[in-house]
């Protein structure tokens, strides 16, 4: 049909017809077969700086890139989703095996979503510092570090498709840095995003976990943090640092910051999730053993936050009976169940 | 509201309420204030190859990245939108001054949209060949080459916002190559996209114009091409090459290909649009003068296509009274008018 020929009233009728006539509405409302009704969508660059050459030419770089969608009747607080190391906004989009990721799942739950590409990554590749992109094959290492299995074997019961296409898409969801990662610069850009959009919830993954704490200390508009498998950058008050933790993946060092800064993290609810296949005792496989100390450090970190009057919680999914998750719980085969947990947290904290 | 609590019937009612209760439905149906009703959206990698290191590690790279949206009741043929040099899928999203780009405008016109990041660019940054990313300031050169004006002056009547924020967003819409541009590899990936999605219309810009001809010769599922300001890669049958055309931006060389290949381009409708501020006679400013010969070559190219029984047309917008367009007509201030022209072409060729 040529929608341009129809009046607004008829358009509304057509939309409702599409919604109610279609067999799709017999599915659950959150079902992937129902249409997404988007009030507004678009993209923009945020943060960054400008450098000038001797010839007066400029370069605008070091911004983050954001793609956002606002559903009709959005909830009060948007979700800002920040990818991890080697990844980009794709983290939250279609899963490797072709199901809906957090972008769609939470749009269906009436949240506005803002997906970030951090400075010098993906669509935000224009930086004020150059870089070298290597094409060194390294994917089996990531397969292990992301706890899909121990290459070439998948973990028994892992929540990851065994199809070759899924693994192909999974590997192609990585994209290189176009310049040095700079935690201050990245957290500045994310803080600038919250200045632009106002109060919202920050969802981080892996490497953005630590940078997410930095952003939250910079901007009180970050009203809560949901952090999936933070891997580094655990900040502690100077004088209260736990010892570094050794693992087959190297030592995990806590980061000391001024106590007044740390206290800012005690003002918001924070929840941290880790998946399965994390050993209790040291083991030789660095891909798994690194997560043993990251999980331990996260628990130590949450204890410290709470000792100072904060509200942080670490949920180790197998401990609540949710098994088989990789380093990417939000895109694993059970990601609707994982999303339900996050929805439960947001409801419990009256953030939805 | 917690949408998960509602039945499908109630959901439909809520959506309809949202649509009809809101004052927004008093606007025109294609208006940016009406909701987009998306049946399906997602992203995937397409094309590319795999290399293996001596240690058995692999690297999947050289794919294109695609973000797609399918509206409810889509038209027969999707639109596949391919950015130009130094750009990425952002080209088709929100304009530099915050209005809707072709992604939203054509979703509102009931077309499914597929936005590409070509191999080794933006979200498709993972390549099988490494590269060096330079941070050399060069934006005033692009300001001139993209015909916004002659830095620091805007062209009188240029269809580009004078706001500083718009220029800031415009410059930040560039992203570097993460490896060498490879026209064969890029057109292979785009051809693979058409293998996946079936018959569709290819929309190209600038540098993707020439690569778009290559893709169309590889894949008959490309049913038409709308090319905005193709800048190079004009293919002619061997033996029918026009002379190179000299300009202040350098010589534009035609590309010879086997006549049998060329003939494939005579089987589909092709329309080419160029904007304003292209000089009729040679001038010293390379930013403008380069387009003088590209426009001339495009006209020569269309004549050759048509002489061989094809259907190609070059529309120089000022000649039909549409003035002030830059190198990015689809995101200029008058982009709805420019989109109407494209809709008219698609209707005329029964492609909608």
Core attributes:
homodimer; 352 residues; alpha/beta; Rossmann fold; 2 domains; eight-stranded mixed sheet; two-stranded antiparallel ribbon; 21% strand; globular; disordered N terminus; Alpha/beta fold hydrolase (chains A, B); AB_hydrolase_fold (chains A, B); AB_hydrolase_1 (chains A, B)
Explain how this protein is built.
2 copies of one chain form a homodimer. Chain A has helices at 8-21, 102-108, 139-145, 164-171, 183-197, 207-218, 259-263, 286-307, 335-348; strands at 36-46, 49-52, 58-61, 64-71, 79-82, 113-117, 131-133, 149-150, 153-154, 200-205, 222-228, 235-237, 255-257, 269-274, 311-316. With 352 residues, chain A is α/β, with parallel strands linked by helices. Chain A has 9 helices and 15 strands. Helices cover 30% and strands 21% of the residues of chain A. In chain A, helix 3 packs across helix 8 (286-307). Chains A and B meet through helix 1, strand 1, strand 3, strand 7 and helix 3 of A and helix 1, strand 1, strand 3, strand 7 and helix 3 of B.
The parts of chain A where pLDDT drops under 50 for at least 5 residues are 1-27
For the record, what is the CATH homologous superfamily label of the largest domain in chain A?
Alpha/Beta hydrolase fold, catalytic domain
The shape of chain A, in one word, is: globular
Question: What's the number of structural domains of chain A?
Answer: 2
Mean pLDDT of chain A: 93
Assembly state (oligomeric): homodimer
Summarize the biggest pleated sheet of chain A. 8 strands, mixed
Short description:
The first copy, chain A, is an alpha/beta fold and 352 residues long. In chain A, 30% of the residues lie in helices and 21% in strands.
């Amino acid at each position: 049909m040529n929608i341009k020929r129809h009046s607004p009233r008829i358009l509304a009728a057509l939309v409702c017809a599409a919604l109610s006539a279609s067999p799709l509405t017999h599915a659950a409302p959150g079902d992937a077969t129902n249409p997404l009704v988007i009030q507004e969508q678009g993209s923009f660059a945020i943060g960054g700086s400008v450098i000038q050459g001797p010839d007066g030419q400029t370069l605008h770089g070091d911004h983050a890139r954001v793609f956002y969608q606002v559903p009709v009747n959005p909830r009060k607080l948007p979700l800002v989703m920040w990818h991890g190391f080697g990844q980009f906004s794709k983290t939250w989009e279609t899963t490797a095996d072709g199901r809906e990721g957090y972008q769609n799942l939470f749009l269906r739950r009436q949240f506005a979503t803002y997906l970030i590409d951090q400075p010098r990554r993906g669509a935000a590749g224009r930086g004020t510092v150059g870089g070298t992109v290597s094409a060194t094959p390294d994917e089996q290492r990531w397969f292990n570090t992301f706890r899909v299995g121990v290459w070439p074997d998948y973990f028994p019961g892992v929540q990851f498709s065994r199809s070759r296409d899924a693994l192909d898409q999974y590997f192609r969801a990585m994209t290189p840095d176009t310049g040095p990662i700079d935690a201050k610069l990245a957290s500045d850009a994310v803080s600038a995003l919250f200045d632009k959009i106002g109060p919202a919830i920050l969802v981080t993954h892996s490497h953005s976990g630590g940078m997410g704490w930095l952003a939250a200390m910079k901007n009180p508009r970050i009203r809560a943090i949901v952090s999936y498998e933070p891997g580094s950058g655990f900040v502690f008050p100077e004088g209260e640092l736990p010892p570094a933790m050794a693992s087959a993946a190297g030592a995990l060092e806590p980061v000391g910051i001024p106590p007044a800064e740390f206290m800012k993290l005690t003002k918001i609810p924070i929840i941290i999730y880790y998946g399965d296949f994390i050993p209790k005792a040291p083991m030789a496989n660095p891909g798994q053993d690194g997560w043993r100390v990251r999980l331990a450090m996260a628990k130590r970190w949450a204890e410290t936050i709470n000792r100072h009057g904060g509200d942080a919680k670490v949920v180790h999914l197998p401990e609540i009976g949710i098994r088989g998750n990789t380093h990417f719980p939000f895109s694993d085969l059970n990601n609707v169940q994982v999303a339900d947990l996050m929805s439960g947290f947001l409801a419990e904290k009256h953030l939805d």
